[in-house]
Amino acid sequence: MALVDADYKFIWLVVGPDGVASDAQIYNECELTEVLKNKTIDFPYPEPLPGDDRNIPYFFFADNAFQLKTDMMKLFPFRNMTVEDRIFNYRLSRTRSLVENAFGIMSQRFQILLSTMQHSPDNVRIVVQACICLHNLIGIRLPNMNINHVDR
């Protein structure tokens, strides 16, 4: 489970919990939940969107496995939706796809992630964390480069 910024960089990640645990269970039991609850994380203060003067808070975008909270957005239920609800769901789905795209970019770059690793769980965790660090480093050092060009 991961948090990804708009530049496809991983800003928080949990690697290695049991495969039967849901994302919501992992989130509820991880240190991120605790620091958000205690307000000991440097979460950005609300600020205006481009072309507006009203402060808008930052949110997490989550799927329906998560509980709705003041700092978390998720899709409207699919029953009896208005046109505005459908537009909101479409836009939120596009935003949530950033996480999927970040994993896809990283997996194409580090193709060891595309197959089953024949290693101990601890070593797999280390490999995944190393790939994430390298993925972020490439994104920071070469932000405007085409992925294929960087990988060559």
From TrEMBL:
Pfam families: DDE_Tnp_4 (PF13359). The keyword Metal-binding applies. GO terms for molecular function: metal ion binding. Its cofactor is a divalent metal cation. Residues 2-136 form the DDE Tnp4 domain. Keywords: Metal-binding. This is DDE Tnp4 domain-containing protein.
